[in-house]
């Protein structure tokens, strides 16, 4: 089996980065939903004296992020911090893919690889909007 062409490698690299960004978006939505749910529980517990005080304390620690607990807010901030460098890596990979695509067209590369690369470039530009 011949090794993959530079065009195929660049295409798969962009596809992987697009999937990675989608995964981080799903993670962020999940974390934000969890935070909203926890904040709602804390709001319900406040003002009630018969509730378990330890449960209220633990919820507040998680929501507010007091040490030594790992705060959900910290996790959300860290996930959001991933996006700018990831988008830059995607932009760089797309630029490289476009260069490889032009080379592939000029050298008469495989039609399947060229079509896959064009589709990937289109998807990457849609994701970047």
Question: How would you describe this protein?
Answer:
Residues 103-129 are annotated as: Disordered. InterPro entries: TBCA, TBCA_sf. This is Tubulin-specific chaperone A. Residues 103-113, 120-129 have a biased composition (Basic and acidic residues). The chain is mostly helical. It has one domain: Methane Monooxygenase Hydroxylase, Chain G, domain 1. It contains four helices and no strands. It has helices at residues 6-45, 53-64, 72-106, 111-127. Helix 3 (72-106) runs antiparallel to helix 4. The longest helix has 40 residues, at 6-45. The mean pLDDT is 84.
Which secondary structure elements does this structure contain, and how are they paired or packed?
Elements: H1 6-45, H2 53-64, H3 72-106, H4 111-127
A few lines on this structure:
The protein is mainly α and about 130 residues long. It has 4 helices and no strands. About 15% of the residues are buried.
Described by strand count, sense and barrel closure, the largest sheet is:
none
Name the structural class.
Answer: mainly alpha
Low-confidence stretches: none
Q: Mean of the pLDDT scores? A: 84
How do the helices and strands follow one another from N- to C-terminus?
Answer: HHHH
Number of helices: 4
């Amino acid at each position: 089996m011949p090794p993959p062409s530079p065009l195929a490698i660049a295409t798969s690299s962009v596809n992987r980065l697009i999937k990675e960004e989608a995964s981080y978006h799903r993670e962020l939505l999940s974390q934000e939903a969890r935070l909203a749910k926890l904040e709602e529980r804390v709001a319900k517990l406040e003002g009630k004296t018969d509730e378990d005080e330890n449960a209220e304390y633990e919820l507040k620690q998680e929501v507010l992020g007091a040490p030594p607990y790992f705060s959900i807010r910290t996790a959300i901030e860290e996930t959001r911090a991933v996006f700018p460098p990831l988008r830059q890596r995607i932009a760089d990979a797309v630029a490289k893919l476009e260069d490889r695509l032009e080379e592939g067209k000029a050298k008469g590369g495989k039609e399947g690889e060229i079509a896959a690369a064009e589709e990937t470039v289109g998807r990457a530009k849609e994701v970047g909007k």
